[in-house]
Write a structure and sequence with these properties.
Two copies of one chain form a homodimer. The first copy, chain A, has a five-stranded mixed beta sheet. A three-stranded antiparallel beta sheet of chain A has the order 2-8-4. Chain A is of the alpha+beta class. Chain A is globular, with a radius of gyration of 18 Å. Chain A folds into two domains: 153 residues, Jelly Rolls; 72 residues, Arc Repressor Mutant, subunit A (Orthogonal Bundle). Chain A contains eleven helices and eleven strands. The first copy, chain A, binds a DNA duplex (30 and 30 nucleotides) through helix 8.
Chain lengths: 258, 258
DNA sequence: GCGGCAATGTACGCAAGCGTACGGATGAAA
DNA sequence: TTTCATCCGTACGCTTGCGTACATTGCCGC
Protein backbone atom coordinates (compact mmCIF):
# COMPACT_ATOMS: atom_id res chain seq x y z
CA UNK A 1 0.00 0.00 0.00
CA UNK A 2 1.55 3.24 -1.06
CA UNK A 3 1.37 5.76 1.70
CA UNK A 4 0.96 9.22 0.36
CA UNK A 5 3.50 11.69 1.61
CA UNK A 6 1.75 15.01 1.74
CA UNK A 7 3.11 18.28 2.96
CA UNK A 8 0.75 19.46 5.63
CA UNK A 9 1.14 23.05 6.66
CA UNK A 10 -1.73 24.99 8.04
CA UNK A 11 -3.02 28.44 7.51
CA UNK A 12 -2.77 31.20 8.49
CA UNK A 13 0.02 31.84 6.09
CA UNK A 14 3.14 33.35 7.59
CA UNK A 15 2.70 36.99 6.81
CA UNK A 16 6.03 37.73 8.33
CA UNK A 17 7.86 36.67 5.18
CA UNK A 18 8.38 40.00 3.53
CA UNK A 19 6.80 38.93 0.33
CA UNK A 20 6.44 41.33 -2.50
CA UNK A 21 2.85 40.91 -3.51
CA UNK A 22 2.02 41.40 -7.16
CA UNK A 23 -0.46 44.09 -8.13
CA UNK A 24 -3.98 43.59 -6.82
CA UNK A 25 -5.76 42.09 -9.81
CA UNK A 26 -8.70 39.99 -8.76
CA UNK A 27 -9.78 39.77 -12.39
CA UNK A 28 -7.05 37.23 -12.90
CA UNK A 29 -9.65 34.89 -11.51
CA UNK A 30 -12.09 34.44 -14.35
CA UNK A 31 -15.06 33.90 -12.10
CA UNK A 32 -14.46 37.28 -10.51
CA UNK A 33 -13.65 38.83 -13.86
CA UNK A 34 -17.07 38.26 -15.35
CA UNK A 35 -19.07 39.66 -12.44
CA UNK A 36 -21.33 42.62 -13.18
CA UNK A 37 -20.49 46.06 -11.77
CA UNK A 38 -22.79 45.89 -8.79
CA UNK A 39 -21.41 42.58 -7.57
CA UNK A 40 -17.86 43.76 -8.04
CA UNK A 41 -18.58 46.83 -6.02
CA UNK A 42 -19.85 44.77 -3.14
CA UNK A 43 -17.23 42.05 -3.16
CA UNK A 44 -13.94 43.41 -4.45
CA UNK A 45 -13.27 45.70 -1.48
CA UNK A 46 -13.26 42.63 0.76
CA UNK A 47 -11.00 40.47 -1.36
CA UNK A 48 -7.65 39.78 0.18
CA UNK A 49 -4.72 38.65 -1.86
CA UNK A 50 -2.95 35.67 -0.33
CA UNK A 51 0.10 33.72 -1.43
CA UNK A 52 -0.51 30.05 -2.13
CA UNK A 53 2.51 27.96 -1.35
CA UNK A 54 3.01 24.52 -2.75
CA UNK A 55 1.55 21.94 -0.42
CA UNK A 56 -0.40 24.33 1.76
CA UNK A 57 -3.68 22.91 2.97
CA UNK A 58 -6.60 25.28 2.52
CA UNK A 59 -8.97 23.07 4.37
CA UNK A 60 -9.16 19.70 6.02
CA UNK A 61 -12.06 17.26 5.97
CA UNK A 62 -14.80 18.26 8.34
CA UNK A 63 -13.36 21.65 9.24
CA UNK A 64 -15.55 24.63 8.45
CA UNK A 65 -14.01 27.19 6.16
CA UNK A 66 -13.48 30.79 7.14
CA UNK A 67 -12.92 31.94 3.58
CA UNK A 68 -13.50 30.97 0.01
CA UNK A 69 -10.54 31.18 -2.34
CA UNK A 70 -10.46 32.44 -5.90
CA UNK A 71 -7.18 31.23 -7.42
CA UNK A 72 -5.41 33.74 -9.64
CA UNK A 73 -2.38 31.96 -11.02
CA UNK A 74 -2.33 29.06 -8.55
CA UNK A 75 -3.93 25.64 -8.76
CA UNK A 76 -5.67 23.81 -5.96
CA UNK A 77 -6.35 20.09 -5.82
CA UNK A 78 -9.33 18.65 -4.05
CA UNK A 79 -8.25 15.29 -2.84
CA UNK A 80 -9.45 12.58 -0.60
CA UNK A 81 -7.02 10.93 1.74
CA UNK A 82 -7.94 7.45 2.86
CA UNK A 83 -7.55 5.99 6.29
CA UNK A 84 -4.38 4.20 5.27
CA UNK A 85 -2.88 7.38 3.83
CA UNK A 86 -3.40 6.63 0.17
CA UNK A 87 -4.94 9.50 -1.74
CA UNK A 88 -6.80 10.38 -4.89
CA UNK A 89 -7.54 13.65 -6.57
CA UNK A 90 -11.21 14.40 -6.95
CA UNK A 91 -10.99 17.60 -8.93
CA UNK A 92 -8.72 20.53 -9.63
CA UNK A 93 -9.49 24.22 -9.33
CA UNK A 94 -7.68 27.10 -10.97
CA UNK A 95 -8.38 30.60 -12.16
CA UNK A 96 -11.67 29.46 -13.64
CA UNK A 97 -13.12 28.55 -10.26
CA UNK A 98 -13.50 28.83 -6.54
CA UNK A 99 -12.42 26.71 -3.61
CA UNK A 100 -15.05 26.21 -0.94
CA UNK A 101 -18.31 25.47 -2.68
CA UNK A 102 -19.64 23.67 0.39
CA UNK A 103 -20.15 27.10 1.95
CA UNK A 104 -22.91 28.11 -0.39
CA UNK A 105 -24.16 24.59 -0.97
CA UNK A 106 -25.02 24.53 2.69
CA UNK A 107 -22.83 21.79 4.09
CA UNK A 108 -20.05 24.04 5.38
CA UNK A 109 -17.53 21.20 5.12
CA UNK A 110 -16.63 18.27 2.90
CA UNK A 111 -14.84 14.96 3.50
CA UNK A 112 -12.02 16.05 1.22
CA UNK A 113 -8.94 18.16 1.56
CA UNK A 114 -7.84 21.14 -0.51
CA UNK A 115 -4.12 21.38 -1.24
CA UNK A 116 -2.15 23.87 -3.27
CA UNK A 117 -0.81 21.95 -6.23
CA UNK A 118 0.82 24.81 -8.06
CA UNK A 119 2.09 27.83 -6.18
CA UNK A 120 0.94 31.35 -6.85
CA UNK A 121 -1.68 33.71 -5.53
CA UNK A 122 -5.34 33.68 -4.78
CA UNK A 123 -7.97 36.10 -3.57
CA UNK A 124 -9.95 35.16 -0.59
CA UNK A 125 -13.26 36.38 0.71
CA UNK A 126 -14.71 35.91 4.19
CA UNK A 127 -17.32 33.18 4.20
CA UNK A 128 -20.23 35.28 5.51
CA UNK A 129 -19.85 37.77 2.69
CA UNK A 130 -20.01 35.09 0.05
CA UNK A 131 -23.05 33.52 1.64
CA UNK A 132 -24.80 36.86 1.80
CA UNK A 133 -24.07 37.55 -1.84
CA UNK A 134 -25.17 34.09 -2.84
CA UNK A 135 -28.42 34.66 -0.99
CA UNK A 136 -29.26 37.58 -3.25
CA UNK A 137 -30.04 35.12 -6.00
CA UNK A 138 -28.28 37.26 -8.54
CA UNK A 139 -25.38 36.85 -10.91
CA UNK A 140 -23.13 35.36 -8.27
CA UNK A 141 -25.55 32.59 -7.41
CA UNK A 142 -26.16 31.83 -11.04
CA UNK A 143 -22.46 31.65 -11.81
CA UNK A 144 -21.50 29.63 -8.79
CA UNK A 145 -24.16 27.05 -9.46
CA UNK A 146 -23.07 26.62 -13.04
CA UNK A 147 -19.49 26.35 -11.88
CA UNK A 148 -20.52 23.73 -9.36
CA UNK A 149 -22.13 21.69 -12.08
CA UNK A 150 -18.95 21.88 -14.09
CA UNK A 151 -16.99 20.73 -11.06
CA UNK A 152 -19.43 17.92 -10.64
CA UNK A 153 -18.77 16.79 -14.19
CA UNK A 154 -15.08 16.82 -13.48
CA UNK A 155 -15.57 14.57 -10.48
CA UNK A 156 -17.78 12.20 -12.39
CA UNK A 157 -15.26 11.95 -15.16
CA UNK A 158 -12.49 11.36 -12.68
CA UNK A 159 -14.42 8.37 -11.42
CA UNK A 160 -14.79 7.02 -14.93
CA UNK A 161 -11.14 7.63 -15.71
CA UNK A 162 -10.00 5.89 -12.56
CA UNK A 163 -12.01 2.90 -13.54
CA UNK A 164 -11.09 2.45 -17.15
CA UNK A 165 -7.93 4.21 -18.24
CA UNK A 166 -4.22 3.57 -18.04
CA UNK A 167 -1.77 5.57 -15.99
CA UNK A 168 -0.36 7.08 -19.15
CA UNK A 169 -3.75 8.24 -20.36
CA UNK A 170 -4.53 9.67 -16.98
CA UNK A 171 -1.25 11.48 -16.84
CA UNK A 172 -2.02 13.13 -20.16
CA UNK A 173 -5.43 14.16 -18.94
CA UNK A 174 -3.96 15.52 -15.75
CA UNK A 175 -1.27 17.51 -17.53
CA UNK A 176 -3.82 19.04 -19.84
CA UNK A 177 -6.18 19.97 -17.04
CA UNK A 178 -3.32 21.63 -15.19
CA UNK A 179 -2.09 23.37 -18.30
CA UNK A 180 -5.49 24.90 -18.93
CA UNK A 181 -5.27 26.54 -15.55
CA UNK A 182 -1.84 28.07 -16.01
CA UNK A 183 -0.51 30.88 -18.14
CA UNK A 184 2.44 29.07 -19.72
CA UNK A 185 3.54 25.55 -20.64
CA UNK A 186 5.63 24.94 -17.55
CA UNK A 187 4.50 22.93 -14.58
CA UNK A 188 6.45 22.77 -11.34
CA UNK A 189 5.52 19.40 -10.04
CA UNK A 190 7.52 16.34 -9.08
CA UNK A 191 6.50 12.90 -10.21
CA UNK A 192 5.98 11.99 -6.60
CA UNK A 193 3.30 14.64 -6.22
CA UNK A 194 1.63 13.72 -9.48
CA UNK A 195 1.51 10.14 -8.28
CA UNK A 196 -0.28 11.24 -5.12
CA UNK A 197 -2.81 13.16 -7.17
CA UNK A 198 -3.50 10.32 -9.53
CA UNK A 199 -3.46 7.82 -6.70
CA UNK A 200 -0.80 5.63 -8.33
CA UNK A 201 2.80 4.69 -7.62
CA UNK A 202 5.54 7.16 -8.25
CA UNK A 203 7.25 4.60 -10.48
CA UNK A 204 4.15 4.39 -12.60
CA UNK A 205 4.37 8.09 -13.27
CA UNK A 206 8.07 7.82 -14.02
CA UNK A 207 7.39 5.20 -16.62
CA UNK A 208 4.48 7.01 -18.24
CA UNK A 209 6.29 10.34 -18.24
CA UNK A 210 9.36 8.65 -19.69
CA UNK A 211 7.32 7.43 -22.63
CA UNK A 212 5.87 10.87 -23.21
CA UNK A 213 9.34 12.40 -23.09
CA UNK A 214 10.78 9.84 -25.48
CA UNK A 215 7.92 10.59 -27.84
CA UNK A 216 8.81 14.27 -27.64
CA UNK A 217 5.51 15.34 -26.12
CA UNK A 218 6.94 16.71 -22.92
CA UNK A 219 10.28 17.37 -21.34
CA UNK A 220 10.90 17.19 -17.65
CA UNK A 221 13.66 17.31 -15.14
CA UNK A 222 13.57 17.44 -11.41
CA UNK A 223 10.12 18.82 -10.96
CA UNK A 224 9.98 21.04 -14.02
CA UNK A 225 7.69 19.80 -16.73
CA UNK A 226 7.42 21.51 -20.09
CA UNK A 227 4.74 20.55 -22.55
CA UNK A 228 6.24 20.55 -26.01
CA UNK A 229 3.48 19.19 -28.21
CA UNK A 230 0.08 19.82 -26.83
CA UNK A 231 -1.94 18.55 -29.80
CA UNK A 232 -0.31 15.16 -29.63
CA UNK A 233 -0.73 15.13 -25.88
CA UNK A 234 -4.43 15.59 -26.39
CA UNK A 235 -4.48 12.68 -28.77
CA UNK A 236 -2.78 10.45 -26.22
CA UNK A 237 -5.21 11.45 -23.50
CA UNK A 238 -8.42 9.56 -22.97
CA UNK A 239 -11.76 11.05 -23.87
CA UNK A 240 -12.17 12.21 -20.28
CA UNK A 241 -10.20 15.37 -20.82
CA UNK A 242 -12.29 16.43 -23.78
CA UNK A 243 -15.53 15.65 -22.00
CA UNK A 244 -14.62 17.84 -19.06
CA UNK A 245 -13.25 20.64 -21.22
CA UNK A 246 -16.29 20.68 -23.46
CA UNK A 247 -18.58 20.79 -20.48
CA UNK A 248 -16.72 23.68 -18.87
CA UNK A 249 -16.85 25.56 -22.16
CA UNK A 250 -20.54 24.91 -22.48
CA UNK A 251 -21.47 25.83 -18.92
CA UNK A 252 -19.12 28.78 -18.53
CA UNK A 253 -18.42 30.19 -21.98
CA UNK A 254 -17.42 33.68 -20.80
CA UNK A 255 -15.09 32.26 -18.22
CA UNK A 256 -13.35 29.68 -20.35
CA UNK A 257 -12.97 32.02 -23.32
CA UNK A 258 -9.37 33.27 -23.52
CA UNK B 1 -12.79 -4.41 -23.76
CA UNK B 2 -16.06 -5.30 -22.15
CA UNK B 3 -18.89 -3.75 -24.03
CA UNK B 4 -21.70 -2.82 -21.76
CA UNK B 5 -25.04 -4.18 -22.77
CA UNK B 6 -27.60 -1.66 -21.70
CA UNK B 7 -31.28 -1.74 -22.22
CA UNK B 8 -32.22 1.45 -23.98
CA UNK B 9 -35.86 2.32 -24.02
CA UNK B 10 -37.02 5.87 -24.28
CA UNK B 11 -39.69 7.84 -22.62
CA UNK B 12 -42.55 8.57 -22.81
CA UNK B 13 -43.46 5.51 -20.86
CA UNK B 14 -46.10 3.34 -22.48
CA UNK B 15 -49.22 4.43 -20.70
CA UNK B 16 -51.17 1.92 -22.64
CA UNK B 17 -50.16 -0.90 -20.35
CA UNK B 18 -53.11 -1.02 -18.02
CA UNK B 19 -51.04 -0.71 -14.94
CA UNK B 20 -52.63 -0.53 -11.58
CA UNK B 21 -50.97 2.43 -9.99
CA UNK B 22 -50.47 2.33 -6.27
CA UNK B 23 -51.96 5.05 -4.12
CA UNK B 24 -50.68 8.55 -4.78
CA UNK B 25 -48.14 9.01 -2.01
CA UNK B 26 -45.47 11.50 -2.96
CA UNK B 27 -44.20 11.46 0.60
CA UNK B 28 -42.59 8.14 -0.16
CA UNK B 29 -39.88 10.33 -1.58
CA UNK B 30 -38.13 11.71 1.46
CA UNK B 31 -37.16 14.95 -0.20
CA UNK B 32 -40.81 15.67 -0.89
CA UNK B 33 -41.83 14.42 2.52
CA UNK B 34 -39.94 17.06 4.44
CA UNK B 35 -41.20 20.05 2.50
CA UNK B 36 -43.09 22.70 4.44
CA UNK B 37 -46.81 23.17 3.91
CA UNK B 38 -46.54 26.07 1.51
CA UNK B 39 -44.14 24.29 -0.81
CA UNK B 40 -46.27 21.18 -0.77
CA UNK B 41 -49.30 23.18 -1.69
CA UNK B 42 -47.55 24.61 -4.71
CA UNK B 43 -45.84 21.48 -5.95
CA UNK B 44 -47.89 18.42 -5.03
CA UNK B 45 -50.81 19.17 -7.34
CA UNK B 46 -48.41 19.00 -10.28
CA UNK B 47 -46.70 15.78 -9.34
CA UNK B 48 -47.39 12.91 -11.64
CA UNK B 49 -46.86 9.34 -10.62
CA UNK B 50 -44.95 7.35 -13.24
CA UNK B 51 -43.85 3.71 -13.36
CA UNK B 52 -40.12 3.16 -13.55
CA UNK B 53 -39.26 0.03 -15.47
CA UNK B 54 -35.95 -1.69 -15.18
CA UNK B 55 -33.56 -0.35 -17.78
CA UNK B 56 -35.62 2.65 -18.78
CA UNK B 57 -33.51 5.65 -19.63
CA UNK B 58 -34.73 8.85 -18.00
CA UNK B 59 -32.29 11.00 -19.86
CA UNK B 60 -29.43 10.77 -22.30
CA UNK B 61 -26.26 12.84 -22.33
CA UNK B 62 -26.82 16.30 -23.72
CA UNK B 63 -30.57 16.04 -23.94
CA UNK B 64 -32.50 18.63 -21.95
CA UNK B 65 -34.91 17.23 -19.41
CA UNK B 66 -38.60 17.93 -19.45
CA UNK B 67 -39.16 16.72 -15.90
CA UNK B 68 -37.35 16.05 -12.69
CA UNK B 69 -37.99 12.72 -11.03
CA UNK B 70 -38.49 12.00 -7.37
CA UNK B 71 -38.08 8.22 -6.93
CA UNK B 72 -40.51 6.62 -4.50
CA UNK B 73 -39.53 2.97 -4.30
CA UNK B 74 -37.36 2.85 -7.41
CA UNK B 75 -33.64 3.41 -7.81
CA UNK B 76 -31.94 5.32 -10.60
CA UNK B 77 -28.30 5.05 -11.60
CA UNK B 78 -26.40 7.94 -13.05
CA UNK B 79 -23.84 6.40 -15.32
CA UNK B 80 -21.40 7.44 -17.91
CA UNK B 81 -21.08 5.40 -21.05
CA UNK B 82 -17.77 5.66 -22.85
CA UNK B 83 -17.23 5.87 -26.57
CA UNK B 84 -16.36 2.19 -26.71
CA UNK B 85 -19.48 1.22 -24.81
CA UNK B 86 -17.90 0.52 -21.43
CA UNK B 87 -19.69 2.17 -18.58
CA UNK B 88 -19.31 3.27 -15.01
CA UNK B 89 -21.79 4.33 -12.40
CA UNK B 90 -21.29 7.83 -11.10
CA UNK B 91 -23.93 7.90 -8.41
CA UNK B 92 -27.21 6.35 -7.41
CA UNK B 93 -30.47 8.08 -6.55
CA UNK B 94 -33.37 6.67 -4.59
CA UNK B 95 -36.16 7.89 -2.40
CA UNK B 96 -33.78 10.28 -0.64
CA UNK B 97 -33.16 12.29 -3.77
CA UNK B 98 -34.05 13.73 -7.11
CA UNK B 99 -33.01 12.98 -10.67
CA UNK B 100 -32.27 16.01 -12.80
CA UNK B 101 -30.20 18.38 -10.70
CA UNK B 102 -28.73 19.99 -13.80
CA UNK B 103 -32.06 21.75 -14.24
CA UNK B 104 -31.68 23.95 -11.21
CA UNK B 105 -27.91 24.05 -11.37
CA UNK B 106 -28.30 25.84 -14.64
CA UNK B 107 -26.73 23.47 -17.14
CA UNK B 108 -29.94 21.81 -18.31
CA UNK B 109 -28.04 18.69 -19.35
CA UNK B 110 -25.14 16.50 -18.23
CA UNK B 111 -22.75 14.17 -20.07
CA UNK B 112 -24.19 11.20 -18.18
CA UNK B 113 -27.18 8.98 -18.54
CA UNK B 114 -29.87 8.15 -16.00
CA UNK B 115 -31.12 4.55 -16.01
CA UNK B 116 -33.63 2.79 -13.82
CA UNK B 117 -31.68 0.27 -11.83
CA UNK B 118 -34.48 -1.03 -9.66
CA UNK B 119 -38.05 -0.93 -10.88
CA UNK B 120 -40.82 0.86 -9.05
CA UNK B 121 -42.46 4.24 -9.12
CA UNK B 122 -41.44 7.85 -9.09
CA UNK B 123 -43.13 11.23 -9.04
CA UNK B 124 -42.23 13.66 -11.72
CA UNK B 125 -42.59 17.39 -11.93
CA UNK B 126 -42.40 19.56 -15.05
CA UNK B 127 -39.05 21.29 -15.27
CA UNK B 128 -40.36 24.88 -15.35
CA UNK B 129 -42.23 24.40 -12.09
CA UNK B 130 -39.15 23.15 -10.31
CA UNK B 131 -37.06 26.00 -11.62
CA UNK B 132 -39.64 28.52 -10.51
CA UNK B 133 -39.79 27.03 -7.05
CA UNK B 134 -36.02 26.90 -6.83
CA UNK B 135 -35.91 30.56 -7.74
CA UNK B 136 -37.91 31.46 -4.65
CA UNK B 137 -34.82 30.83 -2.58
CA UNK B 138 -36.86 29.05 0.05
CA UNK B 139 -36.90 25.61 1.56
CA UNK B 140 -36.75 23.86 -1.78
CA UNK B 141 -33.61 25.64 -2.86
CA UNK B 142 -31.98 25.02 0.48
CA UNK B 143 -32.81 21.34 0.42
CA UNK B 144 -31.85 20.75 -3.17
CA UNK B 145 -28.48 22.39 -2.71
CA UNK B 146 -27.70 20.30 0.33
CA UNK B 147 -28.81 17.21 -1.54
CA UNK B 148 -26.57 18.18 -4.42
CA UNK B 149 -23.63 18.43 -2.09
CA UNK B 150 -24.39 14.97 -0.79
CA UNK B 151 -24.54 13.68 -4.34
CA UNK B 152 -21.25 15.36 -5.02
CA UNK B 153 -19.71 13.51 -2.11
CA UNK B 154 -21.01 10.27 -3.51
CA UNK B 155 -19.38 10.98 -6.85
CA UNK B 156 -16.10 11.91 -5.25
CA UNK B 157 -16.09 8.75 -3.20
CA UNK B 158 -16.90 6.71 -6.27
CA UNK B 159 -13.77 8.10 -7.86
CA UNK B 160 -11.70 7.14 -4.83
CA UNK B 161 -13.25 3.70 -4.66
CA UNK B 162 -12.62 3.05 -8.33
CA UNK B 163 -9.01 3.90 -7.80
CA UNK B 164 -8.15 1.97 -4.68
CA UNK B 165 -10.55 -0.80 -3.81
CA UNK B 166 -11.13 -4.36 -4.92
CA UNK B 167 -14.14 -5.58 -6.81
CA UNK B 168 -15.37 -7.37 -3.71
CA UNK B 169 -15.17 -4.24 -1.59
CA UNK B 170 -16.92 -2.24 -4.25
CA UNK B 171 -19.64 -4.82 -4.55
CA UNK B 172 -20.29 -4.56 -0.82
CA UNK B 173 -20.45 -0.80 -1.03
CA UNK B 174 -22.80 -0.99 -3.96
CA UNK B 175 -25.12 -3.48 -2.31
CA UNK B 176 -25.31 -1.35 0.80
CA UNK B 177 -26.00 1.84 -1.12
CA UNK B 178 -28.78 0.09 -2.99
CA UNK B 179 -30.17 -1.46 0.15
CA UNK B 180 -30.43 1.90 1.86
CA UNK B 181 -32.69 3.03 -0.94
CA UNK B 182 -35.08 0.09 -0.78
CA UNK B 183 -37.66 -1.02 1.71
CA UNK B 184 -36.58 -4.63 2.12
CA UNK B 185 -33.48 -6.78 1.81
CA UNK B 186 -34.17 -8.06 -1.68
CA UNK B 187 -32.54 -6.73 -4.79
CA UNK B 188 -33.60 -7.71 -8.27
CA UNK B 189 -30.44 -7.34 -10.21
CA UNK B 190 -28.39 -9.71 -12.34
CA UNK B 191 -24.65 -9.90 -11.97
CA UNK B 192 -24.34 -8.67 -15.51
CA UNK B 193 -26.08 -5.43 -14.62
CA UNK B 194 -24.08 -4.98 -11.46
CA UNK B 195 -20.94 -5.43 -13.52
CA UNK B 196 -22.05 -2.65 -15.85
CA UNK B 197 -22.66 -0.36 -12.91
CA UNK B 198 -19.34 -1.05 -11.30
CA UNK B 199 -17.58 -0.97 -14.65
CA UNK B 200 -16.04 -4.40 -14.21
CA UNK B 201 -16.37 -7.82 -15.84
CA UNK B 202 -19.38 -9.91 -15.12
CA UNK B 203 -17.06 -12.71 -14.04
CA UNK B 204 -15.52 -10.45 -11.48
CA UNK B 205 -18.90 -9.92 -9.91
CA UNK B 206 -19.61 -13.64 -10.01
CA UNK B 207 -16.44 -14.34 -8.11
CA UNK B 208 -16.94 -11.63 -5.53
CA UNK B 209 -20.60 -12.48 -5.03
CA UNK B 210 -19.66 -16.14 -4.69
CA UNK B 211 -17.34 -15.32 -1.83
CA UNK B 212 -20.00 -13.29 -0.10
CA UNK B 213 -22.49 -16.09 -0.51
CA UNK B 214 -20.07 -18.71 0.80
CA UNK B 215 -19.45 -16.49 3.79
CA UNK B 216 -23.18 -16.36 4.38
CA UNK B 217 -23.49 -12.61 3.89
CA UNK B 218 -25.83 -12.77 0.95
CA UNK B 219 -27.76 -15.29 -1.05
CA UNK B 220 -28.53 -14.93 -4.69
CA UNK B 221 -29.99 -16.79 -7.60
CA UNK B 222 -30.84 -15.68 -11.07
CA UNK B 223 -31.11 -12.00 -10.43
CA UNK B 224 -32.55 -12.14 -6.93
CA UNK B 225 -30.17 -11.03 -4.23
CA UNK B 226 -31.00 -11.26 -0.55
CA UNK B 227 -28.80 -9.66 2.03
CA UNK B 228 -28.58 -11.97 5.01
CA UNK B 229 -26.03 -10.33 7.25
CA UNK B 230 -25.86 -6.63 6.83
CA UNK B 231 -23.46 -5.86 9.68
CA UNK B 232 -20.83 -8.17 8.29
CA UNK B 233 -21.42 -6.80 4.83
CA UNK B 234 -20.61 -3.37 6.19
CA UNK B 235 -17.41 -4.68 7.67
CA UNK B 236 -16.37 -6.16 4.35
CA UNK B 237 -17.08 -2.93 2.52
CA UNK B 238 -14.42 -0.28 2.15
CA UNK B 239 -14.62 2.96 4.07
CA UNK B 240 -16.27 4.58 1.07
CA UNK B 241 -19.73 3.41 2.03
CA UNK B 242 -19.47 4.83 5.53
CA UNK B 243 -18.09 8.12 4.28
CA UNK B 244 -20.99 8.61 1.93
CA UNK B 245 -23.57 7.46 4.44
CA UNK B 246 -22.23 9.70 7.16
CA UNK B 247 -22.20 12.65 4.84
CA UNK B 248 -25.79 12.08 3.74
CA UNK B 249 -26.85 11.80 7.37
CA UNK B 250 -25.03 14.97 8.23
CA UNK B 251 -26.32 17.01 5.33
CA UNK B 252 -29.85 15.69 5.28
CA UNK B 253 -30.70 14.47 8.78
CA UNK B 254 -34.46 14.74 8.40
CA UNK B 255 -34.40 12.92 5.14
CA UNK B 256 -32.11 10.09 6.09
CA UNK B 257 -33.77 9.51 9.43
CA UNK B 258 -35.84 6.35 9.11
C1' DG C 1 33.79 21.87 -5.92
C1' DC C 2 31.76 18.85 -2.96
C1' DG C 3 28.69 16.52 0.25
C1' DG C 4 24.08 15.50 0.73
C1' DC C 5 19.53 15.12 -0.41
C1' DA C 6 15.75 15.12 -3.35
C1' DA C 7 14.25 13.43 -7.75
C1' DT C 8 14.35 10.02 -11.06
C1' DG C 9 15.62 5.34 -13.20
C1' DT C 10 15.34 0.36 -13.14
C1' DA C 11 14.34 -4.17 -11.90
C1' DC C 12 11.76 -8.25 -10.16
C1' DG C 13 8.25 -10.98 -8.24
C1' DC C 14 3.43 -10.80 -7.31
C1' DA C 15 -1.69 -10.07 -7.37
C1' DA C 16 -5.80 -8.30 -9.38
C1' DG C 17 -8.40 -8.00 -12.99
C1' DC C 18 -9.15 -8.45 -18.14
C1' DG C 19 -10.45 -10.97 -22.50
C1' DT C 20 -12.00 -15.07 -23.97
C1' DA C 21 -14.11 -19.39 -24.10
C1' DC C 22 -17.22 -22.77 -22.84
C1' DG C 23 -19.94 -25.68 -19.71
C1' DG C 24 -23.70 -26.14 -16.39
C1' DA C 25 -27.91 -24.72 -14.11
C1' DT C 26 -32.45 -22.85 -13.62
C1' DG C 27 -36.66 -21.02 -14.54
C1' DA C 28 -40.17 -19.76 -17.91
C1' DA C 29 -42.54 -20.71 -21.99
C1' DA C 30 -44.43 -23.98 -25.22
C1' DT D 1 -42.13 -32.39 -20.15
C1' DT D 2 -39.30 -30.55 -23.14
C1' DT D 3 -37.11 -26.65 -25.00
C1' DC D 4 -34.64 -22.64 -24.72
C1' DA D 5 -32.80 -18.38 -23.33
C1' DT D 6 -30.87 -16.32 -19.47
C1' DC D 7 -27.93 -16.45 -15.80
C1' DC D 8 -24.09 -18.18 -13.44
C1' DG D 9 -19.54 -21.01 -12.75
C1' DT D 10 -14.96 -21.90 -14.06
C1' DA D 11 -10.67 -21.87 -16.33
C1' DC D 12 -6.43 -19.94 -18.64
C1' DG D 13 -3.22 -16.86 -20.43
C1' DC D 14 -2.12 -12.13 -20.41
C1' DT D 15 -1.46 -7.22 -19.08
C1' DT D 16 -1.28 -3.61 -15.86
C1' DG D 17 0.01 -1.92 -11.89
C1' DC D 18 1.65 -2.76 -7.03
C1' DG D 19 5.25 -3.43 -3.39
C1' DT D 20 9.85 -3.40 -2.68
C1' DA D 21 14.56 -2.54 -3.18
C1' DC D 22 18.32 -0.12 -4.71
C1' DA D 23 21.08 2.57 -8.21
C1' DT D 24 21.83 6.97 -10.41
C1' DT D 25 21.60 11.84 -11.31
C1' DG D 26 21.37 16.63 -10.81
C1' DC D 27 20.73 20.72 -7.78
C1' DC D 28 21.71 23.42 -3.67
C1' DG D 29 24.17 24.97 0.14
C1' DC D 30 28.34 25.07 2.49
Amino acid sequence: MSLAVIVVSHLPLPLKDHLILPAHQPQQNRLLAVLPEAERGRLFPHLEQVPMKLGHVLYEPGVALQHVYFPADSIVSLLYVMENGASAEIAVVGKEGIVGISLFMGGETTPSRAVVQSAGYAYRLPAPLLKEEFGRSGAVQHLLLRYTQALLTQMAQTAVCNRHHSVEQQLCRWLLLSLDRLSDNNLTMTQELIANMLGVRREGVTEAAGKLQTAGLISYSRGKIIVLDRPRLEKKACECYAVVKTEFDRLLPDIMAN
